[in-house]
Each structure stands twice: as structure tokens, then as C-alpha cells.
Amino acid sequence: MQTTARTFRTFAAIAIAAVMTTTAAVTALAQPPKPAAPAKPATARPSVRAPATTITAVRVPGTGPINDAFGKHWAGARPMKVAMLPQSVTLPHNPAPAVTGLTVRAVHNGTWVAFLIEWKDDTVSDKIVLDNFGDQVAIQLPIDTKAAPPSPMMGNPGGRVNIIQWRAAFQHDIDKGPPTTKSLYPNSWADVYPDEVLSANDARPYSGALGLENPISRGRATPVLDQFAEGWGSMTVKPDQHALGSGVHRNGAWHVVITRPMASDDQNAPRLVPGDRTVAAFAVWEGGAREVGARKAWSAWIPVVVAR
Question: Which of 43, 47, 71, 185 is most buried, taking the most CB atoms under 10 A from its CB?
């Protein structure tokens, strides 16, 4: 009897479960289907612009020199990251340069072309005293824009280049006036200077580089030197200076503009017209890291396009 009772209860439980399952299924079929959840709109991926591999001098309105590092004309100029290399070709080497990269933009207005060169530098080195050096940057352009580019190392015999160099010390002298001996060497003392007791001609041998008419020692109206070269040791300052420039140190970085006429009577400068293609190279010195002369960072040739 107990077995029969247990068997009966088992069959009853199975039957109840079957009825409940069937009822649930019928109820589910009778209900209208739930609307599908609206699809989430696809999130547009931000476009990633490939790094520039060419310096494009975009056309901007205006005439004359372009000499403002913070002017609105730079807004449309795409920045180019220029990798700087250790100078290890000639002595003294500079195996670990302080500046490893520049950001370069370029614009032109049909008559002048300008390059904005920027780099990080927490210190300002703009005074030249014994065993101290100044911050500097230079751009190099081949004079013959139609021929194969010469060596980026200041050109080569028969491959002349135009090198325009900005110097922080020149900028300091223009902005704040030339330094005095006392400001450069506060502990120095002199009872008399030769030019105070001698004629200009007799005092000339005592005036150092200025007495030898070294163009770098003259008072300057612009902080850039317009030069040409055909290889190491051939750098020559042009007798007629056509290039201009300006530099500002702001927020731990230098912002330097170097500008020159696109065409002139200068035989030692490139002639550029809208639509031209050429190349440019760069060099930079951080005076606070004791960089001067061959102790510099330099770049390979970078393609340049002068937009129409």
C-alpha cells in the first residue's frame, strides 16, 4: 500500500509539472512579442591625421616680411615634426644633443616666405660671456632648387646652400640693448679703455673682432645672420643681409620666425615661386647645454612645397 501511495504521488507531481509548463508556454505565445531595443548609434571614431612628411608653405594674405611668431597667419599652416640628429661627422662631436625635435610651420604671401621653428627649452641662454654659449637655430636651403640637393651638412663644393641662423644673443641686444662689460662681467674693473685716450684709428687694434670688421661683431638690426656655405669650414656671412627674423621665449619654449624674400638680386639665395618644390634642413644649439659650433643637433633634408 505504501509503494502504491508513493507511486501515485510521483505520477501526480509529474502531471502537475507538465500542466504548469504547458500553461506557461501557452501564456507566452498569447502575449505580443516585446519590441526590440533600439540599436545604439555607432560612435564615430575621431579621424587620426597622419603625421606630416612635407613642410607646406601655405599662402597667406599680405605683403612684405612675415615676422610675427604668434600671428593668425600660422593657423592654417600644418606643423611638421622634425627629428634632430646627433652631430657625429666632424669634431667636436655631439652624441647626445639637448634638443631632439623641432616643430616647423611655413607660410608665404607671394613675395616673402617664412618658417616658424619651435622647440622646448626651459632655460634662456641669450648672453655670450667667456665659456658660455647662446641658444641658436638655423634653416638651410639649397640655392639651386632645380638640381639634386647637396649634402645636408652645410652643402659641398659646387653644391652651395643658404644658411640663415637666428641667435638669442642678437635677439637680446635688439630687445634690451647691447650688454655692457659690467653687466657681463660684474666683478671686472678697468681704469681706462684705449678708445678713451687714443684716436679711433690707434684704438682699433685693441677692439678685437670689431677692429677686424668681423660682421658678427657689428651692431645688428635683425637677430639673424644670412650666410652661405659649400661644406664644412666654408661658412661666409653675406655682405648684404636680406633675411629677417624674431624670437620669443614663452612657456618654456622658443618660438622663432625666419623670413626672407622669395626672389631677390642675391645670387647666394634660392629663388622661389608658388608651386615650387625644394628641401630644407635645420640645426639647433642649446647654449645651456654648452652647445656651440659643431656641437649641435642637425636634420636631414625635409621636402618643402610652396603652395600656389
Answer: 71
